[in-house]
Design goal:
Blueprint (H helix, E strand, L loop, with lengths): L2 H4 L16 H11 L3 H14 L4 H13 L3 H13 L5 H13 L3 H10 L5 H10 L11 E5 L8 E7 L3 E6 L20 E6 L10 E2 L10 E6 L5 E7 L14 E9 L2 E7 L9 E6 L5 E6 L9 E6 L10 E2 L10 E6 L4 E6 L9 E8 L2 E2 L3 E2 L10 E6 L5 E6 L9 E7 L7 E9 L10 E4 L2 E4 L5 E6 L4 E7 L6 E6 L8 E8 L5 E6 L1 E2 L10 E6 L4 E4 L8 E6 L7 E9 L6 E8 L5 E3 L7 E2 L8 H4 L16 H16 L3 E8 L6 H21 L7 E7 L19 H7 L1 E9 L2
Parallel strand pairs: 22-28, 29-36, 30-37, 38-39
Antiparallel strand pairs: 1-21, 2-3, 3-4, 4-5, 6-7, 7-8, 8-9, 10-11, 11-12, 12-13, 14-15, 15-16, 16-17, 16-18, 19-20, 20-21, 22-25, 23-24, 23-26, 26-27, 29-33, 31-32, 31-34, 34-35, 38-40
Helix pairs in contact: 2-3, 3-4, 4-5, 5-6, 6-7, 7-8
């Protein structure tokens, strides 16, 4: 491949003064330092014939072969270094890569396992161990050679305005004179265009924007969706643009095309004389530009970056795509589809050898899991510049596979079927009780919905390194909310997720709210229920005209227990709060009225609050009037009502049964009434709004009298009816 364009800029830097002062070696080192590798090679080869074991010469010559894509030469030089023990760690990697490019995977594995410099050794070892996986989607792509390939390097084809193809090539106009690159010895690259004629055939390529073509490298190319804005890689010819090392760095150019004329040609601001920027790729919306660069702060070699266009149309600062994409190797030739699939070439990820093509999904400007596209897109040689058309069904790639890794060629790509990258998940949906499979069940993963087949099964491929929200729904069953993650480090590419659904017993809460005085149903009562088991508050619909309400109960099954705090509210009525406990034993209706007194009374003079809000008896210790904790709980209910109705004035009446002396009962009840009223005042109620009065046994509710010679035959329960505390509304202030 044309290394002057892809920029394999990693060079083994030697202390040349330590090399023997052989004139030939000295001359070769000078050429090497100037990156004139093709000129340095014969001099190093000459020196090596005289001293075949010279480690310094072997190292530099091996680098020259690597940087000019001579795989056979790499095998010889790096092979001698590693086999004689004179190699540095990096040479094990280079030798292993050369072996992989030669198809000698078993030999390569040994040196990849030994390389510990970074993650590349591990990645390539993994690839060699699992070579079969690179062929599993081989039927998804069809490749054929581009009709306008030449005997030179042709690469990075891009469909332009539907009927034009622009590509990069170092083909020459003349057979007897041309300008050549000192790095590779090849001609410099330029952009060429072929377009369809009236017969629908692509014509002989001609140089694109020839009048603007520079002396040095030009290309690769990309364009906006409407074709008006173009971006391409270029070497400057201006001496003032030289870097400190005397080289001309690659830069990304932007221009507009109007009436087939190039206008507003400019160098993008993020370019620099001290590092390379190349291989632009523009998002479908024209707001994000991806490119390769060896600027400082990257992972190593060439990294992929992106920058965003601001509201004023200016490009922002470059942002590194991060370590999911970028490695210690080189990441190059990005392209981006309308659905944000980023394709790129790399020699640092798990691959077959040389450069391979990879894909990743971009979400919120973050790269996801990186996937090797496998065969036939990739080979053991250099494969790069994968550019799909807008429809995603056709496109191009570049490779030097034809001649064993020499010249680059363009290949037409037909995408025969969509390839889903990630982990395959098999969903199985069952009835929890019967274990029967449930067909036609809805499965929702994040925002995408699917349905199980007739067998209750569903298979999909999920992108890796993502947490998915999972919702499973089926009529007459409880829905299940769950999650599924592909962030696991497991190497399993396929796994099963079994979900068991429980039958919804179709429970309904039914109740009626009635007037305490008339017994009539009350319309418009608000019912609030708090599920104490899950601390979940929800509000039911207001009661209908007949005072009834009906509410489906979700999430409860037979065997569960209902623990509800029920609040009944309606303006002009006393608010009532009740505890409702119910063991669910069967399907159907749950009638609250069977267990609760769901009556409420109007706030009016003469009404006893104790009856309206189900105040439990106020108990005192024998012969005492001190307020006990259990009594305080009940009195607090009265406090709440009085705060809700600040115009309410109450008389608290304490009553006893007939047992004991009448005078003593009267005195004790009076003390207790005063104590209870005093407690209410301490809770913030004005003392003018409540008074306490003891009635002793003077207002029995039954015939259980026992004064004088009368001996009562009443039961304990009958006596308890008379022991009561009343909270009578005596006035409602305006």
């Amino acid at each position: 491949m044309n290394k002057s364009i892809i920029l394999f800029s990693i060079i083994s830097l030697l202390a040349f003064e330590n090399v023997a002062q052989n004139p030939t070696v000295k001359s070769a080192n000078k050429l090497y330092s100037s990156k004139l590798y093709v000129q340095a090679i014969p001099k190093y080869e000459s020196a090596l014939r005289k001293d075949s074991a010279n480690a310094d010469v072997l190292t530099n010559l091996g680098d020259c072969y690597r940087l000019t894509n001579n795989n056979r030469g790499q095998l010889i030089c790096y092979g001698k270094l590693v086999k004689t023990g004179k190699a540095e760690d990096i040479h094990k990697l280079y030798y292993g890569q050369a072996l992989m490019e030669a198809g000698k995977y078993d030999d390569a594995k040994k040196y990849m396992e030994e390389y510990k410099g970074d993650k590349r050794g591990e990645a390539f070892t993994k690839a060699i161990t699992n070579l079969q996986k690179f062929s599993k989607n081989a039927d998804a792509y069809a490749l054929k050679e581009f009709m306008h390939n030449s005997k030179f390097d042709d690469f990075s084809a891009f469909t332009f305005m539907n009927d034009k193809i622009i590509f990069t090539s170092n083909r020459t106009k003349s057979t007897w004179i041309t300008r050549r690159h000192g790095w590779t010895g090849n001609s410099y690259c330029h952009m060429f265009m072929t377009e369809k004629n009236e017969f629908g055939e692509y014509e002989t390529p001609a140089m694109f924007i020839a009048e603007y073509a520079p002396k040095f490298n030009d290309g690769p190319f990309c364009a906006s969706k409407d074709g008006t804005n173009i971006f391409f890689t270029r070497n400057s010819t201006n001496k003032k643009d030289q870097s400190l090392d005397g080289s001309q760095k690659l830069k990304i150019m932007q221009a507009t095309i109007l009436n087939d004329n190039l206008q507003s040609l400019m160098v993008l601001k993020f370019n620099s004389n001290e590092y390379n920027c190349a291989h632009p790729a523009l998002s479908a919306d024209g707001k994000t530009l991806y490119f390769a660069s060896d600027m400082g702060g990257g992972q190593g070699g060439m990294d992929l970056y992106y920058c965003k266009k601001d509201a004023g149309g200016a490009w922002g600062s470059p942002i590194n795509l991060g370590e999911k994409v970028n490695t210690k190797g080189n990441e190059l030739f990005p392209s981006i589809t309308e659905d944000n699939i980023l394709y790129f070439a790399s020699n640092g990820h798990e691959g077959l050898g040389g450069l391979d093509i990879y894909e990743t999904k971009i979400r919120d400007d973050k790269a996801g899991k990186v996937y090797n596209m496998g065969k036939p897109v990739n080979s053991e040689h250099d494969d790069f510049a994968y550019n799909l058309n807008a429809d995603g069904k056709k496109g191009f790639l570049s490779s030097n596979r034809k001649n064993g890794g020499m010249n680059d060629d363009i290949y037409n790509v037909d995408v025969l079927r969509k390839v889903s990258r990630g982990k395959t998940v098999n969903f199985i949906i069952k009835d929890k009780n019967t274990q029967e499979l449930l067909p036609l069940t809805t499965i929702k993963l994040n925002t995408d919905s699917f349905m199980t087949n007739e067998k209750g099964e569903f298979q999909t491929v999920l992108e890796e390194d993502i947490n998915y929200g999972l919702l499973v729904k089926r009529e007459k069953y409880f829905e299940i909310q769950d999650s599924i993650s592909t962030k696991s480090s497991t190497e399993e590419e396929e796994f099963t997720k079994t979900i068991e659904l429980e039958v919804d017993p179709n429970l309904t809460l039914l109740a009626g709210i009635y007037d305490a005085k008339t017994g009539s149903g009350i319309e418009g009562v608000k019912i609030k229920i708090k599920d104490l088991a899950i601390s979940n508050d929800f509000e039911l619909l207001k009661t209908e005209k007949n005072g009834e309400y009906r509410k489906p109960i979700k999430g409860k099954k037979i065997g569960d227990k209902l623990l509800y705090l029920v609040t009944i509210e309606k303006e002009g009525y006393v608010t009532k709060t009740l505890n409702f406990t119910y063991d669910i034993k069967k399907e159907g209706e749950i009638q609250m009225n069977e267990l609760l007194a769901l009556t409420i009374g109007k706030v009016e003079v003469g009404m006893d609050l104790a009856k309206m809000i189900d105040i439990k008896p106020i108990y005192f210790d024998l012969g005492k009037s001190k307020i006990r904790p259990d009594a305080a709980i009940e009195l607090n209910k009265v406090v709440a009502i009085m705060k809700e109705y600040p115009n309410m004035i109450i008389e608290l009446g304490a009553h006893t049964d007939c047992r004991g002396g009448a005078a003593a009962n009267l005195k004790l009840s009076g003390a207790r009434a005063v104590a209870a009223a005093g407690y209410i005042v301490k809770q913030g109620i004005d003392k003018t709004r409540i008074s306490g009065k003891g009635y002793g046994e003077s207002k029995l509710l039954n015939t259980c009298g026992c004064e004088g010679k009368v001996k009562s035959t009443c039961t304990e329960y009958e006596h308890s009816v008379n022991r009561r505390t009343e909270f009578i509304i005596v006035k409602l202030k305006n």
